[in-house]
Specification:
The chain has 12 helices and 4 strands, in the order αββααβαααβαααααα. The strands form 2 sheets. A two-stranded antiparallel sheet has the order 1-2. Strands 3-4 form a two-stranded parallel sheet. Strand 1 and strand 2 form a beta hairpin.
Length: 350
């Protein structure tokens, strides 16, 4: 994340901090110019010394990098900057890829499903926008520790385990995080935790891409913890870290897009995750079905999902709704605050 921070510093934050929190020059930092006015001795009133975050990318700082009371390596500045970046990035990725998915992938016929909620998409977006600033706040300590050099993140191949690891770090990352997320996600379904934290995300029985980040903030952060733990336990190349951080956010959108293109026994795609939203107690995995198979929670997606004429049929929707209703009553009891867009169709399906 230090590479991202350097880019934002160079193009945005240096000038902002120099303007809002200018360095206070002492008399020893001043000289009398030939015209009789005072000027700084070296245009660097702070002790900050620039060191590029990566050998592959270096942006020479402007004069503003040296003109703030909070230089680039200041603890409070890094905390604030990382919060702004994390919150902005989360919102940007959510809307950018969510909108692309909604326009080009999501099947709008899903709006006719008896379990689609009234004003659902606006509620998904509102829930996401409430959650992301808090998730960003919880995430900052991990990013800060990484920026300040406390993780195992490396820059060049020579600094890491070797060229073989530059490739193997990707499957290793997915295997590690998939296993931890499975158990965290399954734990969030425990009766003592579900209604307090995870239920807001399961409000969306027929999710749109905008449900991808519509969590209770602590729920969303809990499921992201494995991503942040990994680079403190295992080496991870800096640019791989950024690429993976972007990918997991895109993947989260993809498994909520309702397009069942992948009927895989291993990959936990949108079809598997749809089964989770419909039937609650199955398919907790994030990337694969491996841990669901080991833990006995795997449920194969209905074959109808991969046949458009059956996927969108009223008979299939009614069958889904009836089974889902019995599970909801068992999991949530009578505490059901869902208001459906098509209440008459919902009653018929019960």
């Amino acid at each position: 994340m230090d590479v991202v921070l350097e880019v934002f510093d160079a193009f945005l934050f240096d000038r902002a901090y120099a303007t809002l929190l200018p360095a206070q020059l002492s008399h020893r930092d001043l000289r009398i110019a030939p015209n009789g006015t005072f000027t700084s001795a070296q245009n660097q009133p702070t002790a900050y010394v620039y060191q590029p975050a990566s050998q592959y990318l270096a942006i020479e700082p402007s004069k503003y990098a040296y003109q703030s009371a909070w230089p680039r390596d200041h603890l409070y500045r890094q905390m604030l900057s990382l919060y702004i970046i994390t919150a902005f990035f989360g919102v940007f990725v959510y809307f950018f890829f969510g909108t692309l998915s909604y326009i080009f992938i999501f099947d709008k016929t899903q709006f006719n499903h008896p379990r689609y909620l009234k004003n659902q998409m606006s509620m998904e977006i509102a829930q996401s926008l409430r959650a992301m600033p808090v998730i960003a706040l919880c995430t900052v300590p991990a990013f800060l520790a990484e920026v300040r050099g406390w993780s195992k993140i490396y820059d060049t191949t020579a600094e890491g385990p070797g060229r073989w690891y530059d490739i193997m770090q990707f499957p290793f990352f997915f295997i590690f995080t998939d296993s931890l997320i499975y158990w965290i996600h399954r734990g969030l379904h425990h009766p003592l935790i579900y209604k307090r934290l995870h239920k807001p995300h399961h409000k969306w029985v027929v999710p749109t891409p905008f449900a991808s980040h519509a969590f209770h903030p602590l729920d969303g952060f809990a499921q992201s913890v494995p991503y942040h733990v990994f680079p403190f336990l295992f080496p991870l190349q800096k640019f791989a870290y950024i690429a993976l951080f972007i990918f997991v956010n895109i993947w989260t959108v993809m498994i909520h897009d309702g397009e069942y293109a992948m009927n895989s026994k291993i990959i936990n795609g949108a079809a598997c995750h749809t089964m989770h939203h419909l039937y609650f107690s199955f398919n907790y995995g994030q990337f694969t079905t491996v841990w669901d198979r080991i833990g006995g929670s795997y449920r194969k997606p209905n074959e109808e999902l991969f046949r458009r004429e059956d996927k969108l049929s009223k008979a299939e929707w009614e069958r889904q709704s009836k089974e889902m209703q019995s599970i909801v009553e068992r999991v949530e009891g009578k505490d059901n605050d869902r208001v459906y867009l098509h209440p008459e169709e919902t009653k018929k399906a019960q």
